[in-house]
Design brief:
mainly alpha, 79% helix, 0% strand, globular
């Protein structure tokens, strides 16, 4: 695809963006902004985003991404509960922390299992049921997002590395499906993920001292 073709598809996609997609994108960006601040509002705004994207993903044959958003919704409820827990002095029990070596290994195994499960499932579905599916891209974006969400709920700094992978994979994935505004969202979220990584790194360093 040439640059003029990409530009024309971008303009057409923006013009065809529905109000529902706009709300989903806006709430997603707001949710990531709250996550940078480690603010509890990351979860209610995130749930609004994921519920809408469950519908959008199924509509676009992005079944891996649909499963991610279902997982997002469940993990948002889980994370919301964890982040709300207070100790005897009314301070948050959960602190921003780095993953241990053991946790890193478990995180990589979790990613690998999810990636293979989604890739193999979509490869099978692509043959007869979902010819528009993109197994490798969808599996990468989805598995990294699963891992990122799990670590975000536990306030692990490394969650941002997985979000960076998710955003990079999702930009072309949604663009080729015609969800141009959503694709643009992931460009914004990619930049915000780097900012979030730096912010949480500083908070984790402070928490360790």
């Amino acid at each position: 695809m040439t640059l003029p073709e990409i530009y024309n598809q971008f303009i057409t996609g923006i013009q065809q963006t529905t109000a529902l997609e706009f709300i989903a994108v806006a709430s997603g960006i707001v949710s990531v902004w709250f996550s940078q601040k480690a603010n509890i509002w990351v979860y209610p705004t995130g749930i609004l985003n994921t519920v809408i994207f469950i519908y959008i993903s199924f509509k676009g044959n992005l079944f891996g991404e649909a499963s991610v958003n279902i997982f997002y919704t469940l993990m948002s409820i889980y994370g919301w509960m964890l982040w709300l827990k207070k100790d005897a002095s009314n301070k948050a029990v959960l602190k921003i922390r780095y993953s241990t070596t053991k946790e890193w290994v478990l995180n990589l195994l979790f990613f690998g299992v999810i990636y293979l499960a989604i890739y193999l499932s979509l490869s099978y579905l692509k043959k007869d049921f979902a010819p528009g599916a993109i197994p490798a891209g969808d599996a990468l974006a989805s598995a990294s997002a699963y891992t990122g969400m799990l670590l975000m709920a536990r306030k692990k700094v490394e969650s941002w590395y997985w979000w960076i992978i998710t955003n990079i994979a999702s930009i072309p994935l949604y663009f080729v499906k015609g969800y141009v505004f959503t694709s643009f969202q992931f460009v914004v979220l990619l930049v915000m993920a780097f900012v979030g990584l730096v912010s949480w790194h500083k908070k984790a360093q402070y928490a360790r001292d």
